[in-house]
Amino acid sequence: GIGRSVAVHFAREGCNIVLNYLDEDEDAQITSDMVQKEGMRCLLIKGDIGSKTFSNEMINSTILNFGRIDIIVNNAGRQMPQNSLEDISKEQLEGTFRTNIFSMFYLTQAALKHLRPGSAIINTTSVTAFKGNPDLIDYSSTKGAILAFTRSLALSLAEKGIRVNCVAPGPIW
Q1: Catalytic annotation present for 21
Q2: Which pLDDT tens digit goes with each residue over 86-144?
Q3: Strand 42-46 to strand 120-124: parallel, antiparallel, or no bridges (unpaired)?
Q4: What span, in angstroms and rounded, lies between the C-alpha atoms of 151 and 145?
Q5: Residue 170, pLDDT score
Q6: How high is the pLDDT of residue 173?
């Protein structure tokens, strides 16, 4: 819901969109159609941005198709509720961190050389970064990491004129 809304609203503001998705082919196509109805282009790129190699390929494809990057919206997210910390497997923990935080590092690293003064990076954290959630311990931890990543990256890129912010929505269906 958040990704689609962001894509359509940015298109309404005159932005072409590059939309990454993992395996939601139908949802991605619907979003692309909605962006195109706003008169803008939408490049769909299927793959796992939790992979550094794929993130580099995605940025290269963006530059080949659009010639530049003005805004990055890091919105990928994964959550798998568990009743207790003991129920969180090694695979779940690594997958949640790979999707929710590693992807932001990889994508932003790949894009950084293409950003210029006035560019913006917007990261999606969550209210769970502040409040926690007993059933989403790994997810909440990544959202806290996103908050720290955003604050540190903002300080790092301020001299280059690149804005870095995050949004922290509550529950989304």
Answers
A1: no
A2: 999 999 999 999 999 999 999 999 999 999 999 999 999 999 999 999 999 999 999 99
A3: unpaired
A4: 10
A5: 83
A6: 64
Consecutive H or E run containing 99: none
Which residues fall within 8 angstroms of residue 72, CB to CB, at 6 or more apart?
107, 108, 111, 115, 119, 120, 121, 122
Which DSSP helix (H) or strand (E) runs through 159? none
Cα separation, 136 vs 79, whole angstroms: 7
Contacts of residue 6, Cβ cutoff 8 Å, sequence gap at least 6: 73, 75
Q: Which among 105, 109, 152, 149 has a CA at the least distance from the CA of 129?
A: 149
Tokens, residue 66: 């659009």
Q: Enter the pTM of the model.
A: 0.93
- Opening angle at CA 136, ends 132 and 141, nearest 5: 60
The tens digit of pLDDT for each residue in 113-129 reads 999 999 999 999 999 99
Residue carrying the six token digits 């590693």: 102
Spatial CB neighbours of 114, under 8 Å, sequence gap ≥ 6: 59, 63, 68, 69
Q: Which of 139, 145, 149, 164 is catalytic?
A: 139
In this prediction, residues 61-83 reach a mean pLDDT of 96
